[in-house]
Design goal:
69 residues; mainly alpha; 0% strand
């Protein structure tokens, strides 16, 4: 892998190339696992950020209540 700076298009090109290199016509289960892994990662990150956003909403509510007393 060529050295690239994190966050650049070239960096992500290399990352995606590593994943695409695993696609194998003789092993369709690997391709399905790649897709399912992507879905699972999306769901996991969404759940994490949703939980964090709800926590920020709770803190915001508590701070506003405390400051209006």
């Amino acid at each position: 892998m060529r050295p690239t700076q994190y966050g650049t298009a070239e960096f992500y090109e290399d990352m995606f190339s590593d994943l695409l290199a695993d696609v194998d016509s003789d092993r369709p289960d690997t391709t399905e696992n790649l897709i399912q892994g992507f879905y699972r990662a999306l769901d996991s990150w969404f759940e994490y950020h949703d939980k964090q956003a709800r926590e920020y909403a709770d803190i915001r509510k508590r701070v506003r209540q405390a400051l209006t007393v």
